[in-house]
């Protein structure tokens, strides 16, 4: 969840500050996607059945 929050905050800061370069936007998107995938993996790993 922390990675998704950091990615979302980065995207909001980029939007508010007017930074629209691909590097910042792709980094924020990757953080959100990786955070979601990590969250799903940890949830699945924590289940016994």
Low-confidence stretches: none
Which bin fits the share of residues in helices? over 70%
Overall, the morphology is elongated
The span between the termini is 23 Å
Give an overview in words.
With 49 residues, the protein is mainly α. Helices cover 84% and strands 0% of the residues. The chain contains two helices and no strands. Helix 1 (2-17) runs antiparallel to helix 2 (22-46). It is elongated, with a radius of gyration of 13 Å.
Summarize the structure.
By secondary structure, this protein is an all-alpha fold.
Key attributes of the depicted protein:
single chain; 49 residues; mainly alpha; 2 helices; elongated
Strand-helix topology:
Elements: H1 2-17, H2 22-46
């Amino acid at each position: 969840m922390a990675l998704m929050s950091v990615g979302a905050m980065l995207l909001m800061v980029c939007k508010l500050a007017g930074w629209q370069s691909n590097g910042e936007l792709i980094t924020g998107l990757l953080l959100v996607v990786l955070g979601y995938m990590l969250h799903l993996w940890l949830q699945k790993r924590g289940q016994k059945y």
